[in-house]
Amino acid sequence: MKIYVCVKHVPDSAATITVTGENTIDERVTFIINPYDEHALTEARRIRDDFEGSEVIAVCLGKESARECLRSAMAMGADRSILIKSEMRHDAIETAGAIKAAIDEDGGADLIFTGREAIDSNGMQTMFRLGALYGCPVMTNVVETDISQNRARVVSEGDKGARLAYELELPCVLAAGKGLNKPRYPTMPDIIKSKKKEIKTAYIENLNIAPSQASMKLVKLIPYTENRHPENIIGDTEGTVEKIIDVLKNRAKVI
Amino acid sequence: MERSGVLIEQMDGNVKNSVLGVVSYLRSFKASVFAFVICNTPGAFTRELGKWGIDTIVEIRPEDSRDKMNPQLISRMIVQAMHQTGVNHLFGITGAEGRDLLPRIASLLDGSLVMDCTRVDPDEYTAATSNFSGKTEAVIEFSGEFHVFGMRPNYYKPVKADITPRVIEFIPEMEDNTGIRYQGVVESARSGVDLTEADVIISGGRGLKNGENFSLLFECAKELNAAVGASRVAVDEGWVPYTMQVGQTGVKVNPKVYIACGISGSVQHFAGMKTSGIIIAINEDENAPIFKNCDYYVVGDLFEIVEHLTEKLKRMK
Lengths: 255, 317
Prior knowledge:
- Chain A has 255 residues and is of the alpha/beta class.
- Chain A has helices at 35-50, 67-75, 92-106, 126-134, 188-194, 237-251; strands spanning 2-6, 9-11, 31-33, 55-62, 80-85, 111-115, 138-147, 151-157, 163-169, 172-176, 199-203, 215-223, 231-232.
- Chain A starts with a strand and ends with a helix.
- The model of chain A has no long low-confidence stretch (mean pLDDT 96).
- Chain B has helices at 17-27, 46-50, 71-85, 96-109, 214-224, 232-236, 267-273, 302-316, and strands at residues 3-7, 10-11, 14-15, 32-38, 56-60, 89-93, 112-117, 119-121, 126-131, 136-143, 147-151, 166-170, 180-187, 200-204, 227-230, 257-261, 278-283, 296-299.
- In chain B, a hairpin with a 4-residue loop joins strand 8 (119-121) and strand 9 (126-131).
């Protein structure tokens, strides 16, 4: 079974984001694998171990620096990886097109994993764009998988924690939710071994990407400014609670 | 944007309040609002939706009711109904259901999609959303023939507008070749108020000390008709299920009031609740970062304060 895991190289959520131009940020911050993609990698590795002769391939569209992300993905269990190199920013439609083209060139997938969203651009759609290009089923916020030779039984989580079961034909695209597993972080030997694994480079301009009439282009980034003026509620418990109730009742009008 | 579609979502038998907020937002553009609803009982939504200014209700009636359980088929039904009614812009909310359906619909239409929007400017072809854990607002320029938007839940409040909607019946043509089979409910939805829909949220973090203590928040929530949330610490410690987590890798919420109990206020937590109307923070630690970024704060014992608050709310009834 050939399992592809799409990973994204994103700024750490704790990093300070400085907007440097109209739509760019200072990238001299710590980058990590998108957290949801870690769940995807962990699951892919587990499935690979159930099927002899299987392979997990991490795929990343990004700059040269995204190699780091693929190294981490391979330390977490991917057998090899593909970097689709591009210095540009791409929307979800182009990203899905590039990933599909790179996977096709690599021989095609039985199973494709993504995270349910990336924590930098929060587009929440690349998995569905991929599914549409393949004409194959997609399930998002997947929290359980049971894979056999030609179908995937999955549980997807919906509103208020409802868990719904679906059966999908393979190939399919599964977007990992937080409840899928506990990410398996690499050990020292994993990291050393990962250095010997292959990163194949593909160049976006050489790929045969399906055209689309639609696009989403980031034109402006505006730093979020906090304009709250914290007021300290001082007093005994009775006074404090009275003040909170006053806020709930007269300012927020929720009681 | 003469005609705008809204994807109607329900919860516990009612149209979600946040969806009605989107309807009111669309009316501010003077758009003619089409509500797309999957419904086998003719007229089931006419009265309720009429109160909020829907011009046209498109009742989509699948011939096989099992199709309603397949998100890819629902998306196809919506797309067919959009084509039938000449609607090129579709709005929904960025909750669990919208996260599943809206991207499917946009992909089927080969249209643009922006999720978690706080603003859409149909003349400029731009939409505002947030990037980088809510640290920046991102303005996205969209192009194409069809456009889909997932609005941030609860960002716009519903405003009443009485009109009598026109009702159109639509029977979709379905052929199930989606490769998806619905197998049933493994676990039903939690009872109580949904975090993304809640007007009031009371959340607990490290300061709660254990899972049992969360019952204190649940009791208070009952009096406030609030939802209970949690910080990542409380979830990672196993005190409460991760579905209650508010933050970057949890649920993003927009209540009128957010009461943070024993939560220090990490950047990641703020990413999930910073657009709340009023933030009230209760923490023992006077240096808690959340105190710099809230509207009201109390340095004190959260157990004492929450218990007293619950008692007082009970007596007020």
